[in-house]
Design brief:
The structure holds 2 protein chains of 2 kinds. In chain A, about 45% of the residues lie in helices and about 10% in strands. Chain A is an alpha/beta fold. Among the domains of chain A are: about 240 residues, NagB/RpiA/CoA transferase-like (Rossmann fold, 3-Layer(aba) Sandwich); about 70 residues, no CATH class. In chain A, strands 1-10-7-4-2-3 form a 6-stranded parallel β-sheet, with helices on both faces. The relative contact order of chain A is 0.14. Chain B has 14 helices and 8 strands. Chain B has 2 domains: about 120 residues, Glutathione S-transferase Yfyf (Class Pi), Chain A, domain 2, CATH 1.20.1050; about 110 residues, Rossmann fold. By secondary structure, chain B is of the alpha/beta class. In chain B, about 65% of the residues are buried. Classes of the chains: A alpha/beta, B alpha/beta. At the A-B interface, helix 1, helix 15, helix 17, helix 18 and helix 19 of A face helix 1, helix 2, helix 3, helix 4 and helix 9 of B.
Chain lengths: ~500, ~250
């Protein structure tokens, strides 16, 4: 058992969480409040409902084609588990190989360190502009804001990220950051924010893509620095990899002189051959494609071919703290496919912003609280009905419901250890536990519950209950307690206890 | 066969007809049903709300009460899901390895009603009669924790006089989720709205399921909006015959 018990009460100073005040892992409001606003946004409900249904169907089709899908998932899970078990050794190996191939490796304890490293590297080039490949890690650490403070403009080149950036918005999906926008809204954003855009732009998808293409092409040709994340890094070769659909990433990875990659330390695979498994799992799970249209791989520097100054920033930012938790660490196996978002009945209705973190949906609900420390995102593990749809589609078999339940216990245990006066829920749960622990007390409580019949006011249903159960009766009737419980009926009609014993 | 009934605290307290129907069905099929009165609750609400410490005595009680029996049945997919997937985990989290081993053994003999009927008792036609139009919500924990598959539907389709209509988007959660329904009442209600829309689209008189908790949620919505559609547990449909119809209460 770990220090602090299975629920890691008190945390461990040796493995700090992602710091506050930098990056985008914490929201302003707890999930229920943020969700309430999102649920009332009919445009958002329609956009997300439509988009997730489409991607869900595409994924189901292409996954159904693979006879050994379950074996592939199991291989993905096993590879990730084995990698996490020897992460320090593999990271050192990666550093050696990248360095030997002419690259520079930086270690960043947290978001602030990573931002400072990237800002310094860009500053040394004298450039005041970088082009960016779509990357979750740089969104996580708030790199664009940090660069802006240093007078450096970061230009998002992924079409959806560009829409988000031009709209002064935040991403709401891991794979499709502008999923909450429809094409009419995108047209308005382009007309308003894109310099030199054709004023007759329509909302036809082809015309929108052409406008973005013309806008970005100028940036690709002038940019001297590119910034990316990484989908994978191969420890044995020092190779980094990005998979994408648009080709804009390929431009950023090959045209600039300087390339800076920010990568979470968990993105590693031990060998080149391991990519075989993940390059099958990822596209089918994420975009519903058989393979990614663009798979870019680079190993250090090759004179006369691509960037001449290549940097890799290895980011912790709460990952080591996550690795300490034997149950929760599987969240680090995530390959950012978004399949869990697309099947989640909660995400489908609230969208991603309600989660307050760049990692929304079921994976976000288990990853964000572990990166920040559970208390800084305490509402997220509860933002799930535990329906289990996420676990079924996860390409690396992360048992998300298991981790959600575990993090709920971590939150309750943490609160128990730090508060002197229990709150109403703690009192209610303790009372329910005390009642249920004894059949005599339980039967007495059942008889007391029968008093609830008066709440039905002569009807067959209860229309209103006092708080906190008023949250139930705000939209649902509650059943009227029966005149006789099952156990009383059994005792009356069948006589005494005929099995078991009272321990 | 001698079968111990784990009634579940919800059915015992709020939906005794579901448990009575389970008893009548199993007895009609020629089995002996026993009800160990020392039973209380599986502890799922505590575990899923983060109160594993409070759930530990409930896990111990379940194990001690049901250990003597070769077969245990509960009319709830989610309670059996908790017994099978959470009891040993709770014991281990508090360092009680011996209890965890015993919990695993008892969990292996604990079954949800449709599992018991189809897998252990080997029946799909239980001789029931229910002349109504019915749609079936498969419930998340029956589907994805227990993997009961189409067992409930095979049982339903064998019922005489019944008109079983497929529920659109049946596998999607109804939004109950235990304390989720209260902690995240708005999101839960949004999910329920879509589930009700699909239920109403079937023109069914009844929405059935194998879990009183999901039915309490769906039924609470259907009743609030005066849709005229009622909920009914699978056990209640299977309990009635042509000679002895099951009197459907609320």
């Amino acid at each position: 058992m770990n220090e602090g018990g299975p629920f890691h009460v008190g945390g461990d100073p040796a493995t700090p969480p992602a710091p506050r005040g930098v990056g985008h892992l914490r929201g302003a409001d707890p999930f229920p409040a943020a969700a309430r606003a999102a649920l009332a946004d009919s445009q958002l409900r329609r956009n997300i409902g439509k988009a997730t249904a489409t991607i869900r169907a595409k994924r189901a089709d292409v996954v159904g084609e693979v006879d050994d899908w379950e074996e592939l998932r199991e291989a993905g899970r096993a590879l990730k588990t084995a990698t996490m078990a020897r992460l320090p050794e593999l990271l050192t190996q990666l550093e050696e190989r990248v360095t030997a191939a002419g690259g520079t490796v930086h270690w960043a304890r947290d978001a602030a360190e990573a931002n400072a490293i990237v800002t310094d590297v860009v500053g040394a080039t004298g450039s005041d502009e970088v082009v960016k490949v779509k990357s979750m890690a740089t969104q996580e650490i708030g790199l664009n804001e940090a660069l802006a403070e240093a007078g450096i403009a970061a230009i998002e080149t992924d079409l959806a990220e560009l829409i988000v950036q031009l709209g002064d918005d935040t991403p709401s999906h891991i794979l499709v950051p502008a999923i909450h926008r429809n094409r009419a809204e995108i047209r308005e954003i382009f007309l308003r924010e894109m310099p030199g855009v054709d004023p007759d732009l329509t909302d036809e998808p082809r015309r929108l893509a052409m406008a973005a293409r013309a806008h970005l092409r100028r940036k690709f040709l002038s940019a001297r620095v590119g910034v990316s994340g990484a989908n994978f890094a191969v420890a044995e070769t020092g190779t980094l990899s990005v998979v994408e659909s648009e080709g804009n990433g390929r431009m950023c990875l090959t045209l600039p002189e300087t390339l800076i990659t920010v990568m979470g330390i968990e993105k590693l695979v031990p060998t080149w051959q391991d990519l075989e498994v993940f390059l099958q799992l990822l596209p089918r799970s994420s975009t519903g494609e058989r393979m990614n249209p663009y798979t870019s791989m680079w190993t250090g520097v090759h004179p006369g071919d691509g960037p001449t100054d290549v940097h890799l920033v290895l980011l912790d930012n709460g990952r080591t703290a996550t690795l300490v938790d034997e149950v929760g660490r599987q969240a680090l196996h995530c390959i950012r496919c978004s399949a869990c978002l697309n099947v989640c009945p909660v995400y489908e209705r609230t969208g991603g912003h309600a989660y307050g973190s760049v990692y929304p949906g079921p994976i976000g609900a288990i990853l964000s609280p572990q990166l920040t420390g559970v208390e800084d995102n305490a509402s997220l593990p509860f933002a799930s009905s535990l329906c289990g749809a996420c676990y079924d589609v996860c390409p690396v078999k992360i048992n998300i419901p298991e981790v959600l339940v575990h993090l709920r216990a971590r939150h309750v245990e943490e609160r128990r250890a730090t508060r002197t006066v229990p709150n109403a829920e703690e009192v209610a749960m303790a009372a329910a536990g005390w009642v249920m622990a004894d059949p005599g007390r339980y039967a007495a409580a059942q008889r007391a519950a029968r008093m609830g019949r008066i709440l039905a006011a002569g009807g067959d249903r209860i229309r209103a209950l006092p708080p906190p159960l008023s949250a139930w009766t705000a939209s649902r009737d509650a059943p009227k307690p029966p005149t006789e419980t099952f156990r009383d009926w059994w005792a009356r009609t069948r006589g005494a206890d005929d099995g078991g014993h009272t321990p | 066969m001698r079968i111990a009934l784990f009634v579940t605290c919800l059915a015992d307290t709020m939906f005794p007809d579901v448990a009575k129907a389970t008893v009548r069905l199993l007895e009609r099929l020629g089995h002996e049903v026993v009800f160990p009165a020392a039973q209380t609750c599986c502890g799922q609400m505590h575990v899923n709300t983060g109160y594993q410490r409070e759930a530990l005595p409930l896990v111990r009680r379940y194990v001690e009460v049901f250990e003597p029996f070769d077969a245990v049945v509960a009319p709830s997919g989610s309670c059996v899901g908790s017994i099978r997937h959470q009891h040993a985990m709770v014991a281990r989290n508090f360092g009680d390895e011996a209890l965890a081993d015993r919990a695993e053994a008892v969990a292996g003999r604990s079954r949800e009603l449709s599992e018991l009927l189809v897998d252990v008792l080997g029946v799909t036609d239980v001789g029931a009669h229910f002349p109504h139009r019915v749609t079936y919500h498969p419930t998340c924990h029956s589907l994805r924790m227990l993997r009961v598959g189409d067992r409930p539907l095979r049982l339903l389709r064998a019922v005489k006089g019944i008109d079983v209509v497929e529920l659109p988007a049946a596998e999607e959660c109804c939004g109950f989720g235990g304390t989720f329904a209260v902690k995240n009442a708005d999101t839960s209600t949004a999910m329920l709205a879509d589930k009700m829309r699909n239920v109403l689209a079937t023109d069914a008189e009844f929405c059935s399921a194998s879990d009183s908790s999901c039915l309490m949620h769906i039924g609470g919505g259907l009743s609030r909006l005066r849709t005229g559609v009622r909920t009914i547990h699978l056990a209640q449909i299977l309990a009635g015959t042509e000679d002895q119809p099951w009197e459907v209460t609320v």
